[in-house]
Write a structure and sequence with these properties.
heterotrimer, A alpha+beta (251), B mainly alpha (232), C alpha/beta (651), A: 251 residues, alpha+beta, Ubiquitin-like (UB roll), Fumarate Reductase Iron-sulfur Protein, Chain B, domain 2, five-stranded mixed β-sheet, two-stranded antiparallel sheet, 8 helices, elongated, B: 232 residues, mainly alpha, 9 helices, Beta-grasp_dom_sf (chain A), Succinate dehydrogenase subunit B (chain A), 2Fe-2S_ferredoxin-like_sf (chain A)
Chain lengths: 251, 232, 651
């Protein structure tokens, strides 16, 4: 396959950056998208140019490190697929592909396609946990969890914190990410004692990080490689309102 | 837990989640008004006497406890407050969104989510402008030819006369904008108030669409009927 | 036998494991360990490198105990450590199924599964702790699979005859890691953990303490964003940096997984245990071309219903559907009638290699075997197969573009896990005082072969329960270590800076990846699934030559003052080029076959691995003797009081 890539290049956080065009003549359809970039980088290095910086690690769709907005869509055209699992057979010969970094105030560009997602860690830090110091746990069977709750909690817990929801949202909101954790922990009996503090603190951290508010456009859930459902945000809203307007105290 | 956040209305007002909840509640108030307003409008099909009498009755609601037109003024104040809050929140959220995405994408993909959702802000602006015109037109009569206070039927017929087709056109556009706004607004409000659930999602979407269609049809029936001469 | 390629040193022993009945040893050790006064803990700083299951759980737990923790990871968030990719599950001797499981049975299975090359004391402790891990994780909100009654579900895994594996669909590692990560972030919020993501450890700070000898007091790290080299010091250093499977270039490890931290610690005197023990997982998606950057694991559970076969005739290029039943060789069922397609990982992998070596492999390059679900679909129906394996089939189709419901999957073994690692005693302390090593980075509990669902168990056991108890003993006995002298810091930073400068100054004509790929080829070819004296000796010539070439021809673009991914890779590959040689030496010296180490010279008449307990019932702990010097072998004899070594048989 022959391809034309237009890639966002930016030397550092202060650099203005811009799109740079590259021609690739010999792309195998069996390559993953990142392997295609590897091949380009090998060429750039030997040509004495700076290779394109991009984040990646596990390359099996679970670590959440890879990103890339491909032709305007986070993680590219294939549904429920991270960039590292996207393969070139999904593109056609001669295609022009635009590659940009996640765009968000809260995710500043570090270099080229690499952005700083530490805002997500800040949100978790604010309350995305259950306080259970090591050694304090009762027997695992002490509290049964109804299967439907356990399954829904798992579904929300599948979030890989890649940031595609933020990249896709016209408001630059990270509400899907925040709501996934609020839902996961809020559905489990173990998560009840901190449930209402958790949601208030996490939303506060979300807003402080500079993310936009949710206006339910639904772009996030479409872009999410793990298919985190939009109704997690309703769950978050419900808990948040109960905690503030409803003044639910922690038990 | 080391610190406890302020659990009160101020937190609600400050946070992005709270702002959406405020928009939802104020939006619901405005929707209730829209329903009542439409029911009133449809009385035009029952003739001049019926609708003019209805308009006069509006001024007497709550009597004798409330003085003449007091209810109307209370309602106006409440609606205005709701509208101002609704728009303020919308403005603040929009500004927040703009700040959250300072650099736009070079390659803009087509919308994946809902079009109605993407048109809320500009739709809202169009509706706001229309409301101003609408009040000047049919409440104060400033821009209505030969406006007669209390003669609702007459004013309507004069307003949507065939030669004033542009008024009808503008009215139509605005009502369609209201329809889109309602369609997404209802779904969004349900979500913002935390009442959405996966089981209800389909029903909710259908109900919101149906409601928006009914409202648009109800509101448009009056000017169309006048323009084509069914009501004159 | 010749030992021209290594030198022999003094035997070593694990001096920390108590004697007495095996069930009592861990509680004895905990009781005998000195405690640190709670008021003093606040003044003690522990450095933890890595945030996977072991590092994350250790960091959180040490902080909960009151220590000041300074923690590093090279990823942009601690939540991305490669533990996240573990699919299958985690073992625990809960006996919730009432199927005869017990701590003793898990202990027995693990020692046997490790082909009698692990310490009994360590493995027993692991089995004891396994149940507490499940309790802890449930309390943290890990959403394990549950049954309709609301209780936890279990499955049997990796050929175990009891159902003791807890799981969260195919994402157990992810969920366990997020539990540890969240506990860690809670401590970050509380100010007890100072977290440094996107930092890579490049050296150990050693302080010579007079009579008490040299000890680890800190680490030199590079900020991967700004390139800044900085030293962090403390009272003890914990390495939780994972395995070194990426020596093979292609593996199921993450692209960034590396051996730099443990290798540089090794050069400061930490012995390296059993480097040649590598686990090759039988069910991975085969290589599709030269561009391949990593291999993707397909869960072992697929072998429960899939049948493995190749054509009977070598060089048969017909489409699988065109090959009639009687021209197919279901070789696992043929050779191992008792276990069939469910034989352990090492055996399944080697059998696949053998049939491919005979020219009967399928797919590009003939490096693949079929994993066929046609029978399962016929027997269970398409919907049932879809419900059970749907997500795996989808993943296979995404990567290969082939529909596994219609045409058999192609699979091939790939490097997955390294049982070897830095040698540690019962307290998980290496031979460098003050340097503790946990999780896959140490050599300890799996012997020569790791059982399925045991890696997660070991990582969390080390981090949540073992290290936090044993490190206190070291801290208490070494109160008042004093400031780290400035010279020690300057010296360590100087070493790091010198290597970076050297890498950047070569400006040759080959990329880092091209060297890494070539090293991977050598290792896979000569130190992979089957090792021979001849091949290993050849590797022993090729690797130093390649290393030489690397230091002359590598091209690392850019500068050291900003994000430079080529520079990061170059440092890691430089270390792999040294570690690879030690792996080969270890493999060459161990002339027996055991677990993941198969020497062609040591097999029985059926081609099965033949252990040599008389000569090799020991841990090979290697000492670094300096660049270009022969490494020194220290032997730790293994004693088996409770599980008598026997030949593994799966026929």
């Amino acid at each position: 396959m022959k391809l034309t890539l237009r890639v966002w290049r930016q030397k550092g956080p202060q650099d203005k950056g811009g799109m740079v065009e590259y021609q690739l003549d010999d792309v195998s359809p069996d390559m993953s998208f990142l392997e295609m970039l590897d091949v380009l980088n090998e060429r750039l290095i030997l040509d004495g140019e700076d290779p394109i910086a991009f984040d990646h690690d596990c390359r099996e769709g679970i670590c959440g490190m890879c990103s890339l907005v491909i032709n305007g869509t986070p993680h590219g055209p294939e549904k429920a697929t991270t960039t590292c699992q996207l393969h070139m057979r999904k593109f056609s010969d001669g295609e022009v592909i635009d590659i940009e970094p996640w765009r968000s105030q809260a995710f500043p560009v570090i270099k080229d396609l690499v952005v700083d997602r530490s805002a997500f860690d800040k949100i978790i830090e604010a309350g995305g946990y259950i306080s259970a110091p090591t050694g304090s746990a009762p027997d695992a069977h002490a509290v049964p969890v109804p299967k439907p709750d356990a399954d829904r909690a798992f579904e929300a817990a599948e979030c890989i914190a890649c940031g595609a929801c933020v990249a896709a949202c016209p408001n630059g909101s990270a509400m899907l990410f925040t709501a996934a954790k609020v839902t996961h922990l809020g559905l489990l009996p173990q998560g009840q004692p901190e449930r209402y503090d958790r949601v208030v603190n996490m939303v506060e951290a979300h807003d402080e990080a500079g993310f936009g508010g949710c206006t339910v456009t639904g772009e996030c859930t479409v872009a999410c490689p793990k298919g985190i459902p939009l109704d997690t945000i309703a769950q978050l809203n419900r808990d948040y309102l109960a905690a503030t307007a409803g003044r639910r105290k922690k038990s | 837990m080391l610190q406890t956040s302020p659990r009160a209305i101020p937190a609600l007002y400050r946070s992005s989640v709270g702002k959406k909840a405020i928009m939802a509640v104020t939006g619901v108030l405005l929707v209730l008004f829209l329903i009542a307003h439409m029911v009133g409008n449809l009385k035009v099909f029952l003739g001049p006497a019926e609708i003019d009498e209805y308009a006069a009755w509006l001024r007497t609601i709550g009597a004798p406890l409330l003085h003449h037109e007091w209810f109307l003024w209370i309602q106006r104040v409440v609606l205005l407050a709701a509208l101002v809050l609704h728009m303020t929140m919308a403005y603040q959220l929009a500004r927040r969104a703009r700040r959250a995405r300072p650099v736009r994408y070079r390659h803009r993909a087509k919308v994946q989510g809902s079009y109605a959702a993407r048109t809320m802000r500009w739709g809202g602006v169009i509706i706001a402008l229309f409301v101003i015109y609408h009040i000047l037109d049919l409440t104060t009569g400033t821009v209505n030819p030969g406006y007669q206070h209390g003669e609702v039927y007459r004013n309507l017929v004069a307003d949507f006369a065939p030669e004033r087709w542009y008024v009808t056109l503008f009215y139509t556009l605005a009502v369609v904008a209201v329809g889109f706004h309602l369609r997404h607004g209802l779904v969004s409000a349900t979500q913002s108030l935390g009442a959405a659930s996966p089981q209800r999602a389909r029903t909710l979407n259908l109900a919101a669409t149906a409601f928006a269609v009914v409202m648009v049809a109800g509101y448009l029936s009056v000017p169309f009927a006048v323009t084509v001469g069914l009501v004159d | 036998m010749t030992d021209s390629f290594y030198a022999s040193g003094e035997p070593i022993a694990d001096t920390k494991a108590p004697k007495g009945p095996i069930e009592d040893r861990w509680s004895t050790r905990k009781f005998e360990a000195k405690l640190v006064n709670p008021a003093n803990k606040r003044k003690k700083t522990i450095i933890v490198v890595g945030t996977g299951l072991a590092g994350g759980s250790a960091g959180a737990t040490l902080a909960e105990l009151g220590y000041q923790v300074v923690q590093f990871c090279f990823q942009d968030s601690p939540r991305r450590a490669h533990s996240i990719a573990a699919q299958g599950g985690i073992n625990a001797a809960k006996n919730y199924r009432n199927d005869g499981d017990s701590v003793h049975r898990l202990f027995y299975d693990t020692v046997k599964g490790g082909d009698f090359r692990a310490r009994e004391s360590n493995v027993h402790r692991l089995a004891e702790i396994s149940t507490q891990i499940i309790d802890q994780c449930v309390a943290q909100g890990v959403p394990f699979a549950r049954e309709y009654g609301g209780l936890l579900d279990n499955r049997s895994f990796g050929g175990a005859q009891v159902s003791r594996t807890f799981y969260a669909r195919g994402q157990t590692g992810q969920q366990l890691l997020l539990g540890a990560y969240q506990a860690l972030m809670r401590q970050v919020d509380a100010g007890n953990v100072e977290l440094h993501p996107r930092h890579e450890m490049l050296d150990l700070v050693m302080v010579n303490d007079g009579d008490r000898g040299a000890r680890a007091r800190g680490v030199v790290v590079r900020n991967l964003i700004t390139g800044e080299i900085k030293t962090y010091t403390g009272d003890a250093v914990v390495l939780a940096t994972g395995g070194y499977g990426n020596v093979y270039y292609l593996s199921t490890n993450a692209m960034g997984s590396n051996a730099t931290a443990i290798w540089r610690a090794h050069k400061h005197g930490a012995l390296f245990g059993n480097p040649c023990y590598t686990q090759i997982h039988p069910t991975c998606i085969p290589v599709s071309g030269d561009h391949q950057s990593k291999l993707t694991l397909m869960s072992e559970s697929l072998r429960n219903d899939g049948r493995v076969w190749v054509p009977k005739k070598a060089g048969d290029t017909r489409r699988p559907a065109d090959i009639p039943e009687d021209e197919r060789d279901y070789y696992l069922e043929r050779i191992y009638p008792a276990f069939g397609n469910l034989v352990p990982r090492d055996i399944a992998s080697r059998a696949a290699k053998n049939v491919c070596d005979e020219g009967r492999g399928v797919g590009p390059g003939g490096l693949g075997v079929y994993l066929d679900f046609a029978d399962a679909i016929g027997r269970l129906g398409l919907p049932a197969v879809k419900a059970k394996y749907g997500n795996l089939f989808d993943m296979y189709e995404r990567i290969t573009g082939e529909n596994p419901y219609e045409t058999p999957m192609r699979i091939y073994p790939a490097v997955h896990y390294t049982m070897g690692g830095l040698w540690v005693d019962y307290d998980l302390e290496s031979t460098v005082p003050g340097l503790f090593v946990i999780g896959e980075a140490n050599f300890s509990d799996h012997g020569a072969n790791r059982l399925g669902a045991s890696a997660l168990m070991q990582g969390l056991a080390d981090g949540y329960f073992v290290l936090p108890n044993t490190i206190g003993d070291y801290i208490a006995k070494n109160n008042g270590l004093g400031e780290v002298p400035a010279e020690a810091v300057t010296e360590a930073e100087g070493r790091v800076q010198a290597q970076i400068d050297r890498l950047l100054s070569i400006d040759g004509d080959r990329t880092v990846d091209s060297f890494h790929r070539e090293l991977g080829h050598i290792m896979w070819e000569y130190c992979g699934m089957e090792r021979t004296e001849e091949g290993l000796r050849k590797a022993l010539e090729l690797i130093p030559a390649l290393r030489e070439e690397f230091w002359q021809r590598v091209k690392v673009p850019g500068s050291a003052a900003d994000l430079n991914q080529s520079l990061e890779k170059a440092g890691r590959v430089a270390d792999f080029l040294e570690l690879a040689e030690l792996m080969v030496i270890d493999a060459l010296h161990r002339t027996e076959s055991c677990g993941g180490h198969f020497r062609a010279e040591s097999q029985d008449s059926d081609g099965e691995a033949k252990r040599d307990d008389v000569n090799f019932s020991y841990v090979a702990a290697w000492e670094w003797a300096g660049a270009g010097q022969r490494p020194v072998l220290h032997k730790e004899a293994l004693e088996f009081e409770y599980v008598k070594p026997s030949q593994r048989s799966y026929k």
